[in-house]
UniProtKB/TrEMBL annotation:
Membrane topology, as annotated: Multi-pass membrane protein
Gene source species: Streptomyces rochei
Protein name, per record: SulP family inorganic anion transporter
Transmembrane spans: 15-35, 42-62, 82-101, 113-135, 166-183, 195-217, 237-259, 323-353, 373-400
InterPro entries linked to this entry: SLC26A/SulP_dom (IPR011547), SLC26A/SulP_fam (IPR001902)
Pfam families xref list: Sulfate_transp
Location(s), subcellular: Membrane
Lineage: Bacteria, Bacillati, Actinomycetota, Actinomycetes, Kitasatosporales
Domain SLC26A/SulP transporter: start-end pairs: 11-378
Keyword Transmembrane helix: yes
Swiss-Prot/TrEMBL keywords: Membrane, Transmembrane, Transmembrane helix
Amino acid sequence: MTSISRKFPHLRQDFTASLVVFLVALPLCVGVAVASGVPAELGLVTGIVGGLVTGLLPGSSLQVSGPAAGLTVLVFGAVDSYGLAALGVIVLATGLIQLAMGALKLGRWFRAISLSVVEGMLAGIGLVLIAGQLYSAAGLEAPSSGVDKLIGLPGAAADALGSTEALTSLALGAGTVAVMVLWKRLPKAAQTVPGALAAVGLATAVTAAFGLSVATVEVSGLLDVIQPPGADAFGELANVGLLGTIVAFTLIASAESLFSAAAVDRLHKGPRTEYNKELMAQGAGNTVCGVLGALPMTAVIVRSSANVSAGARTKASRVMHGVWLLLFAALLPSVLALIPLPALAGILVHAGWKLIPFRSIVPLWRDHRGEALILVVTAVSIVAVNMFEGVLIGLALSVVKTAWEASHLKLEIVDKGAGPIQAHLTGNATFLRLPKILESLEALPQDRPVELDLSGLHHLDHACRTALENWAERHSSAGTDPVKVTEPATAAV
C-alpha cells in the first residue's frame, strides 16, 4: 500500500473526485442523449470515451469531457435531418478536423473568438433547449424549429391543463427542477450527493411508489446501440447541408471546450492548459465517438468544476470516472429503464437556464453596448434560423464591430480666413469611415485651395486612397489650385 502511495501520491483524492464526477455525469449523459433524440446508452458511450480516451491524453489535466447540453439542439437537428446513421460520420469528421487543427497549432485562435458570440451562442441554445424540454416535461411532442417551439408554448400549456397525464408529467419535471435549485441550500454533508442525481433518484422513487403513468427511458443495451457508420452514411458527405453541420459541430465543440479549459484553469493552481494538445485530445475523443456512432463530446464545465471542487489533483480522476460509467452501463443498464423522462427534461431545463448569462447582460449593456448587441443578435439568430447560421451572424457582427472600432479617425479642418484650408487626418482611414471623410471634404468651399495632410495616418486602405485621389481631382477641376497632399509617414495598405 505504501509503494502505491509513493507511485500515486494523489490516488485517494483522485478516487474520491472520480466518484463525485461519475455521479454528476450519469444523469447528464442520459438526459443529453434522450434530449438529442438518440438512445440513452449513446450518452453513456460518449461519457466513457471522454474518460478513457480524452481523459488519458495531455491538454487540460482536470477538465472532464462528455456529451454536453450545449450541443443537444444541434445533434437533434442533425439526427432529424440526416438520420442516426449519419451522426457517426458527422462526429468522426469533427474529430478528424479537430486533430488537424491541433496539429497545425490552431487551438489558441479559438481563444480569439468574441466572448459575446460564445455567450450569445449558449444563450440561444439555452432558450431552444428550455422550450423543447418543456414539451417533453409535459409528455408532448415538440415542434422542430426554435421559433415554433417558443410560439407553441401557450398552446402546449392549454393542452397540458386539459390532460391529467400531462399535468402529472409536468409536475414531476417541475419537482425535479425544484429539488436541483433547493439542493444547494442544504447542509454541505447532504450536498456530497450531486443535486442532479438526487433529483432523478427522488423522481424515480416517486414514480415507482405511486405508480405514476409517465414515460420512462427506453433501454436497448450498450452493445446494441453502438452502430459504426456504414458506406451509405459516408455517402451523405456529398450533401452540402451535412458539411455545414460538420463545420458547426467543429466550431461549437472546439470553442466550448477551450473556453471551458480557460475557466477551469482559474479554479485551480495546477498545470495550465496546453490548448493545441487539448484540441487534439477532444479530436481523438470525437473520432472514437464517431467510429462508435455515439454523441459528440466537449469539455463540460459542470463536471470539470465538480472534479476540481472534489479535490482532484491529476487526470486519474477523470479516467476513473470513465471506468465507473463503463461498469454502470455494462452491469446495471436496466436501472435506466426506471428513470422517468420528465425528470430528465427537468434536468435539461435547469441546464438550459444556466446557459443563459442573465447576470452579465445588464452590466454588459451598460458598459459595452456593442458587445451586448452581438450577444442578443447571436442568441435571437440561433432561435430564429439555426445554430450554424446564428453563430456565423454573430461572428460577422463581431468582426464588423472590431473593424469599426479599429478605424478610429479624426478630421480637423483649419481655416484662417485667408490662404489654403488645411485638412488634417489622423488615425486609421478605412472604407468603414469613408462616407464620413468624403462628406466633410466635399463640404469645403470649391473656390479655395486645400492642403490635405495625411501624415498623421497610421493606416490608409486602398479604398480610402482612391476616394481621396478622386475627390482631390474633382476639387481641382473647378480652376482652383491643385490640392496639396502630404503623404502618410508609413506605407499605405
